[in-house]
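Proteins fold reproducibly. Next comes a concrete instance:

***
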Amino acid sequence: MRERKGALIRLPRIAVDLDGVLADTIVPCCRIINSAYGTNFEVSSFNQWNAWEVAHIPKDEFLRSLDSAWHDWRTIPPTEENLEHKVARLLPLAGVDIVTGRSPETVTSAKSWLRFHRIEYNSFVRTNSTLDKAKLSYEVFIDDSPDLMYALSATPGRHGILYTQPWNKQLPELPGIYRADSWNQILESMERIFNRMNVDDS
């Protein structure tokens, strides 16, 4: 809660995705797939959301590759340098939760990764799927999923910030959705969203 004009107001709640927004999981995932299949995939190769179709492997196999990357979580780089400082700038402004579709088996590894990289947050929330996130009561979602952005744009009052990755570059402009090519742009978009919220509440 914070005070404005003598009245307490509730801080907005932000759902921050893990894979592709904080953790660059696709980097070790490419190594795992290339080692298993003799391929030469790079991060830029995965130019659509259904990455397993690009890799020409079953979806379950691709998800197992992601899990394998998380079991060796120290090999996963952050998406940007000094990420902990950039995320920390949100904490005075909003409730910040990590909201992820990570498998139950990798939650401990994910939390270890966050702790190792000194990324602060309020709560860790696991969902069964990406689209299940849209059912949660957050005002703002920071995510790399184009499917989630479509779902959010269809609901008035919801806001999404799409962190640019090769698999979401084709997403068109949508109501309530902002695109960010970096965490600095995420912070700029948050300011615009907060200003809009304050105008709507006044």
The CA atoms of residues 14 and 161 lie 10 Å apart.
